[in-house]
Design brief:
Largest sheet: 7 strands, mixed
Order of helices and strands: EHEEHHEEEEHHEHEHEEHEHEHEHE
Distance between the termini: 15 Å
Helix content: 25-40%
Number of strands: 15
């Protein structure tokens, strides 16, 4: 099968190549998916370039142990393992894999997938899993967002941010999105009640209190976030303030994880986990027209290196998808 193979760490245009690999075989509780589409995420780019270096303890010190990147997948079940009961060949599915989606075929645990929303094409469905689950778990589970809350999404025009604005609205919250000038119209279009252009305003100094801050950027001190949180509010860190090449945002995330000041706002880091039940929840929201994936760019299979290079530039608006097969 054809696959995009990673030869080492570095610029995706230098370390990725289109190659031929053996088609994987599903284990007893696995399914083989004929991949129709995938997408790119910050996690894909970080593993590709090997930054921060601490991540190489898991991925491989000098070169990646896994040769094929790609977490988001949408496709058709090609074959199933002996003990699989949930799926049959021909089923249209989507989900999040540990790796391996940038190939014509990928293996997934049977419980890592959910039925693809009927209203979405494969590229649109591939934009949903990682970003959508991150937004859902960060707001609903960690932030405890409920009707009447005032929620701020910092980084609202990105892949996770556009999902977060819509999901917060679906939970009944009043939503303020923070983005640059170029993203203001987009953030309004996905349902934000108010939009802050960070190039002109600093939301940490405007005096507006929030019940939940969902932070996808990490560009303010924790004390600044506390200043605009209600006393019983929650700050959810889905990213961290950029650091050096060795530890990156890890020190910031660790500070967030320290016990909150007694009687003050809760400061919580988010580690999203793949979950088929959450995929099913997202599918229901999509079919109810409460959530839709926002696609900024679409690339073909041989162009994955360019798609990942664009991801590494930052300031993405919505998701970038990749069509593996038509």
């Amino acid at each position: 099968m054809k696959a995009i193979v990673q030869r080492g760490y570095g610029d995706p245009r230098e370390v990725l190549e289109l190659g031929e690999l053996d088609r994987p075989e599903p284990g007893d509780h696995e399914v083989l998916v004929r991949v129709r589409a995938s997408s790119v995420n910050p996690a894909d780019w970080m593993t590709l370039v090997g930054l921060p270096h601490v991540l190489r303890l898991a991925s491989g010190l000098t070169r990646p142990r896994r040769r094929v990147r790609g977490k988001d997948v949408a496709g058709i079940v090609e074959a199933v393992g002996r003990k699989v009961t949930r799926w049959q060949p021909g089923a249209e599915v989507f989900g999040e894999l540990p790796h391996g989606a940038y190939a014509e075929y990928a293996v997934a645990a049977e419980d890592a997938l959910a039925p693809k929303p009927a209203s979405l094409g494969f590229p649109e469905a591939a934009a949903v899993p990682l970003a959508g689950i991150t937004a859902l778990q960060g707001l609903r589970d960690i932030g405890g967002v409920r009707a009447g809350h005032r929620v701020l999404v910092n980084g609202a025009s990105g892949g996770v941010g556009t999902f977060a604005v819509q999901i917060a609205r679906s939970l009944g919250a009043h939503v303020t999105g923070v983005c640059s000038t170029g993203g203001v119209d987009l953030v309004r279009s996905v349902g934000a009640d108010a939009v802050v252009d960070y190039t002109r305003e600093d939301f940490t100094r405007d005096g507006q209190p929030y019940d939940v801050i969902f932070d996808l950027v990490g560009n303010h001190a924790l004390s600044a976030y506390r200043r605009v949180l209600r006393r019983d509010g929650t700050y959810v860190a889905a990213s961290g303030m950029p650091g050096g090449d060795v530890l990156g945002p890890l020190p910031y995330i660790l500070r967030v994880a320290l016990p909150s000041v007694r009687g003050g706002p809760r400061m919580k880091p988010l580690t999203a986990k793949a979950n088929p039940d959450d995929l099913a929840t997202l599918a229901k929201l999509i079919e109810a027209d409460e959530v839709r994936p926002v696609i900024e760019c679409a690339y073909g299979f041989p162009e994955i290196a360019a798609a990942l290079a664009r991801q590494g530039e930052g300031h993405a608006r919505g998701k970038t998808v990749v069509t593996i097969a038509s």
